[in-house]
Amino acid sequence: MTDQRSQAEIVRQSLKRRYRKERRFRAYGMAAIAIALSALVILFADIIGKGYTGFIKTTITLDV
Amino acid sequence: MQSANLLPIVLVLAVVAYSLAYMRSRAVAEPLGGIRNLKSLPFYYAARAALWCGIPALITLGLWAGFEGKVIQGIVVASLPPEAIPESIGEASLVVSQISNVAAGKLNPEFVPEHIAGAASLLETLRDQSKNFKTILVLLIAVLGAVVAWFRVAPHINARESVETTLRRIFFVCAAVAVMTTVGIIFSVIFETIRFFGKVPFWEFFLGANWSPQTALRADQVGADGSFGMIPLFTGTLLISAIALIVAVPVGLLSAVFLSEYAGKKARSVIKPLMEMLAGIPTVVYGFFAALTVAPFIRDLAETVGLNASSQSALAAGLVMGVMIIPFVSSLSDDVINAVPQTLRDGSLALGATQSETMKQVIFPAALPGIMGGILLAASRAIGETMIVVMAAGLAANLTANPLDSVTTVTVQIVTLLTGDQEFDSAKTLAAFALGMMLFVVTLILNVIALKIVRKYREQYD
Lengths: 64, 462
Description:
The complex is a heterodimer of chains A (about 60) and B (about 450).
Chain A: H1 2-51
Chain B: H1 3-32, H2 42-79, H3 89-103, H4 114-151, H5 159-199, H6 202-207, E1 211-212, E2 227-228, H7 231-262, H8 265-280, H9 283-305, H10 314-339, H11 342-350, H12 355-384, H13 387-392, H14 410-418, H15 427-457
Antiparallel strand pairs in B: 1-2
Helix pairs in contact in B: 1-2, 1-4, 2-4, 2-5, 3-4, 5-15, 7-10, 7-12, 8-10, 9-10, 10-12, 11-12, 12-15, 14-15
């Protein structure tokens, strides 16, 4: 009986650490997806930002 | 008749043969008491008739079309008077093109020597004859095949077996074409590589640390001799690929894990296609993104820290390439992780492991071969990538391990070697084949090593 309780005790003591690890791992995954998607966003923003002027034509009409 | 017109006619004949044989097999079966007394279904008699009608005729057509030109050309050249028979290969092709130009009406027959004009008219009559002969022969074979098949529609003949055998042969030919293409590519590269090593010593190419393939364009021109040391190119390739993989493998793997184990169905259905979009963007777009946005940004960043960076850097090319190959790693790993049996997952969780422990200690080892496959695919994309490197990493063959320096890769050099206007048998052009060969060998070795690693560390559960 005492043996079992001490085992449960050991597991309980380690739980906090293991849950922290779990959260960290999850955060890594989210960060990875964030990196990939932000790369996509930056790429599109850059191309659109640099490229939109190609579709704009400015004309000035002057009275001479 | 033209081969292009003959082709649909043969196909129509095959269809006709099919329907005739089908009807005949029914007619043969009628007095016997239905088609169940035939050895094969009517479909097989019909299919056999179509195959016998079409395949020999098409093979004849193909062979004829393939050898027609060569044979006619040989006859025409042999008909030339003895003093006009060309001596060298170049002269022969000149004479032949002159003859065919006259025959095509592009050249006025009055302006060429008499024997050329004579040969041209011979060429025309031969072509006409060949055309007629071909039409008759092909149609004859098609009809003959159909007729033979028609007479062999009999209750005791097993048509199914012969159709199956023919189909098996057709599949075999298809498979052989794929294999022969690969073999042909390898051999053409090997032969040119051997020619290259006839001009440049093997060890100079293999161990030389200097790459500058500038050779004289003409024999009498003053020019550098050119040095063909492949070491700078391979270090460049390895440097850029290593940077790309350092970006892509962790990001791709962790996203795959998150997507398959943590993300909800809804988030997954949005994020996965978005990530796969990264693989669908053309490499040219990545190239100018790297060259115009990332590379200057890295240069400015390095300068604020006090480092000296060139505006074309291996780091820029590697980073952008890494982004490009993220989906290769993530998508394949995701599929493989999903394919791991649910029982393994449930067992691990039931024993009290957290999700991340399950992932790291149970699912990852089980999915290792597939994950390795994804990484390998990504690595071979990185090694073979050209456009990003041309634009963002430069053309200078520097032997350096500094990622802020400009480097060049094997593929980029192959492009620049083959797009010049050198004659084909110069060392400069042939070097491209030697580089291609080395690239092929290196990727092959990488594959073998990866397979070995997978076999060693894989956990086999089923």
